[in-house]
Design brief:
The protein has twelve helices and four strands; from the N terminus they run ααααββαααααββααα. It is mainly α. It has a domain of about 190 residues. The strands form two sheets. The chain has a two-stranded antiparallel ribbon with strand order 1-2. A two-stranded antiparallel ribbon has the order 3-4. It is extended and about 125 Å long.
């Protein structure tokens, strides 16, 4: 028999339920204290303030002009589209001439020429060899100071270049841009001629010539990116400034040398290279039979054509009826 347990006298508290009631009775939540009553008109406190339009100038309404409904940032207050346009017009006017002049001065110092060639023009030069080889159907890989090129043409390389050119032409056609359509057509025609018309020796001479020619052509293209539209990433991310420097140094490194070579043959880089063997000038004269005058004339003519293209685009982008007023306004505010 189990031993008896004495129970406490008096009423026993109720046992807690096995599961809590998910819907407790209203009296379980005490009423709020000292909060008063809530009337419908109190909703006005949560309504947004009335909008009076843009801030009025004191000259219009005096000191009793209604305040702005929403705070205005300092950038919005002091943003002046006219001053930005004047600054852009000033930069367009002076940036490219200043970059070309600075690159020309840099090329007249031995250390400046060496640094510019190591960091800028050498890479554009090797890219020129590769692109010329690709247009001729050869596989090529641009490397520092040397570009290995395959011995024979490849239909795969031809298709790999033609596909993006066709896509570029398709995008230009959809955009109804005649200059881009013409550029795509010219590039496809150049590839057709270089791949199926030029013989292998002529193609090799072409992509050897394409080294310094690439510095002239690609340098011009990089310089002209400074006139990119306002919505372009080249301008929004300030890439055009870097391309301007690279293009100006690459162009002037080659053009200044070949321009001086018209009267000073010592400026021509004859000789050998420890990685690539004969230099480009030696290959063109000794292997492919170019005369020195033909070689110098080809590079000088190409450089002059690139300068004319730069001048035409520069004049079209800068010479506008309102540009002088914008520049004067910018210079007046700066003073």
């Amino acid at each position: 028999m189990a031993p008896s347990v004495d129970k406490p006298a008096g009423p026993q508290p109720p046992l807690p339920p096995a599961y809590p009631d998910p819907f407790p009775p209203p009296q379980a939540f005490p009423p709020p204290q000292n909060q008063g009553t809530f009337a419908p008109q109190d909703l006005d406190r949560f309504a947004p303030p009335p909008y009076y339009g843009p801030p009025a100038s004191p000259q219009d309404d005096g000191p009793f002009a209604p305040p702005a409904a929403f705070p205005v940032s300092d950038e919005a207050l002091f943003h002046d589209p006219g001053s930005e346009k004047a600054l852009e017009d000033t930069l367009r006017l002076i940036a490219i001439p200043a970059a070309l002049l600075g690159a020309w001065l840099l090329m007249h110092t031995s250390s400046g020429r060496s640094l510019g060639r190591i960091f800028f023009s050498m890479w554009v030069h090797e890219l020129g060899h590769s692109v010329a080889a690709w247009f001729c159907g050869f596989h090529a890989v641009p490397l520092p100071w040397f570009t290995p090129v395959a011995d024979n043409r490849s239909i795969i390389n031809t298709a790999m270049l033609a596909a993006p050119l066709v896509y570029f032409g398709h995008r230009a056609w959809n955009a109804k841009s005649r200059p881009l359509i013409a550029a795509a057509g010219a590039l496809l025609l150049l590839q057709l001629v270089c791949t199926f018309v030029l013989s292998i020796p002529s193609a090799r001479a072409f992509f050897i010539f394409g080294g310094d020619a690439g510095c002239l052509v690609f340098g011009t293209a990089l310089i002209l990116t400074f006139f990119a539209p306002a919505e372009s990433k080249l301008r929004r991310h300030h890439l055009r400034w870097g391309f301007l420097v690279i293009g100006a140094v690459s162009f002037m490194d080659v053009f200044e040398g070949w321009w001086a070579a018209r009267h000073d043959s010592d400026r021509i880089a004859y000789g050998t290279h420890e990685l690539a063997g004969l230099s480009d000038a030696s290959k063109l004269t000794e292997t492919f039979g170019w005369t020195e005058s033909q070689m110098v004339r080809a590079y000088v003519v190409l450089g002059v054509v690139c300068l004319l293209v730069m001048a035409a685009v520069y004049a079209r982008a800068v010479w506008k009826p309102e540009w002088l007023r914008s520049v004067r306004r910018a210079l007046g505010k700066g003073a």
